Amino acid sequence: MTVRAISKNPLHFAAESGVLRHAIRAALFSTALSVGLLPTLGVAAQGSEVTSHRYNIAAGPLSDVLNQFARQAGITLSTTPAQTQGLQSPGLQGDYSADQALSHLLNGTGLVAVSQDGSSYVLRPVAETEALALPTTDIKGFALGNALGSMDGYNATHSQIATKTSTALLETSQSVSVVTREQMDDQGSQTVSQAMRYTPGVLTNPYGATHRYDYVAMRGFNDGSVDNIYLDGLKSMGDSGTYSTMQVDPYFLERVDILKGPSSVLYGRSSPGGLVALTSKKPLYEPYHQVQATVGTQGQRGMGFDFSGPVDDDKRIAYRLTGLADQSDTQFDHNKEKRFALAPTVSIDLTEDTSLTLQAYLQHDPDGGYHGGVPADGTIHQRNGNRISPNFFEGEPGIDGFQRDQQSFGYQFEHRFNDVFTARQNFRYLDSKVKIDQVYAYGWTTPTSNELNRYYTGGDEKLHAFIVDNMLQAEFFTGATKHTVLMGADYQRRKTVVDWTSGGLAPIDAFNPVYGNSAIDFYSPTSYLRRLEQTGIYLQDLIEMDKWRFSLGLRQDWVETSDENRLAEAGRPVGTEISDKRTKLTGRAGALYLFDNGIAPYISYSESFNPNSYADSAGNPLAPTDGTQWEVGLKYQPPGTDNLFTASLFRIDQENLATKLPQENFYRAVGAVRSQGLELEAHMQLTDNLKVLGSYTFTDIEYSKSMISTLSTDTDVIENKGNSPTQAPRHMASVWADYKFDSAALDGLRLGGGVRYVGYSWADAENTLKVPSYTLFDASVGYDLGKVGLKGVDVRLNANNLTNESYVASCASLNFCYLGEERNVAATVSYQF
């Protein structure tokens, strides 16, 4: 059905013949190789003589006018809501240089724009006396400058996640949330998942207290993978069908952007629930040095450093070097977590219009902590009068272990040809090695016993992947209508060699565990070579017509997956390959209207697809999952502020979702799923001292078609139509507030607190048992010791699950429920110099 539908596409003949696909790949490789040659060819000279631009920006709130100016001028301008609150601007008409325009816009406001290097500005009071602050991240970003980099407080104004361009959140016709660096610090986020705890539509702990992977379930969809994580605009490229998944420590990040809903039109294969875009810390063009130390409960201890600044006197080259060493005992017995990571980065302004950022990320995880589940009987309710302890470890201390080494190297290149055209290219190569030995429980030995069956799984994996994304952006007017057109082509390739072993071993008493029964009855090993290759071309037009904003996009993808066995299996000689080739056309359209009072209603339609690299019981690849979404919403940004309030209604339909039972070695298609709901979000800087976040999520998700599974030679229809999938709570809500004292004896003190509510979900697809709701409290206390003479020293205390609530985070089935994270407290001392 998919191929016949695609055959109507005019690109079909070229796709089938391979001409277009191979031409695109050749172009991508050639441009990657030629990146370093562009400066010597002198292509940057075309726009270097331009010193002024023509502007026609209407009068309005100063913050809005400055945002429009920064976007049109291609500069980075850092402000705070407090600086521009209540101020108006007469707008800007005529030809101005950047400095002239800023002087005109800020005349009479008591503010001045301080240049960092000619393309990066910081807004300060005329009589600025502030002694110590984080310098502005200088991302030349002629098209992305306002959507990346550092921000004050919790309020971001722009994001690039939905459009790959710098687009105001107020003007984006899809639901987007942003977690800033300051929010991560205030809340003491130890993982990327934890950083999103106060974001609507996102369940950040579907697998409980494990920190091994950043699982994120969005709008009710959780396929057990982390395939929806992106880093610096590129897919993380882990293999979700294996244990080889990339993870980035939040200490290395500047911000986290979350896009809700399908997004294949710009990114290709993706989950219908949405995606998470991580932005790493970039070099600063002013000296910055910070070191920190952390100690906490569960034996946590760690140290980190973050150094940055210019390399040359002209400030054309800047570096950033960030490092971390951290370890913890975890809440589960006999389990440890340990991590060493380093991220060197260099940014080079080759010319005024050409920039290159070189990045590397090196991470060594000798110990990956706990990752397992236990039965609902004994966790959700008692078994034989007992409950399984939240510290229970069902494995074997002498066997269990997880080691991961990952290295990635890449660059971000950008060149502005003139006032219309800007080209960007992002590239990353990833190398990963994972070794795992795990003993896990599956079900009780008898209906009344206290002993759990145990099995062993082992893996030795090597992953190599790379991805390149080429973009050409054009900004121009047709009459009074402005167009921002983005044309792109990307290519990604991944190869994973996996060697898996499995077996059985003696059961264990869940309420009185005795370890040492470590003899394993091994089963036949398996070994596979898994490959994935994706080529895509896309076109997007963002249209500004008076107060209307339209978004139109199309993308064509060619995806190939294969699975080759390296050991003989029943019916499969060595070298037998199961492969699948798919082509897919996806689209997106949106419309939004900006009222003068800051209200912006919108409607959008978007699509997604995700090839299944899984096979059914007969060894045949499953069809790709397809997703479509309709979303209507209302955004409100009070004039003169960066506060943002968003309400969105959505409906997502998905088909061919893949799943498997733990004891089976094949996957199933679960028919169709429909998710619809409501999300509310508020980001508020209520005063200079008080920041507040609020969110509410209602998700109604159900199987819209019954699951059809193939068992042996029979077809068994499981009647679950109308039931809800597991790990999909119906209600979620959260509030976080942070207050900073600035007078009298409390000057320098910061207090923060939050509450998170997660409603009930189902423990099984047949909806026979509910996972109870739970409410968690978090708190933060900080103090700037510079107020008592220790300049640059800051202390912070974070407590998560303050009341030590014992709860089940979710269940994937009646035999796999995941215990929630118990109370943990961490103290951090940082010194900036």
Automatic annotation (TrEMBL):
Keywords: Cell outer membrane, Ion transport, Iron, Iron transport, Membrane, Receptor, Signal, TonB box, Transmembrane, Transmembrane beta strand, Transport. Signal peptide: none annotated. It is a multi-pass membrane protein. It holds the Pfam family STN. It is found in: Cell outer membrane. InterPro entries: Beta-barrel_TonB, Plug_dom, Secretin/TonB_short_N, TonB-dep_rcpt-like, TonB_sidphr_rcpt. CDD domains: ligand_gated_channel. Residues 75-126 form the Secretin/TonB short N-terminal domain. Belongs to the TonB-dependent receptor family. This is TonB-dependent siderophore receptor.
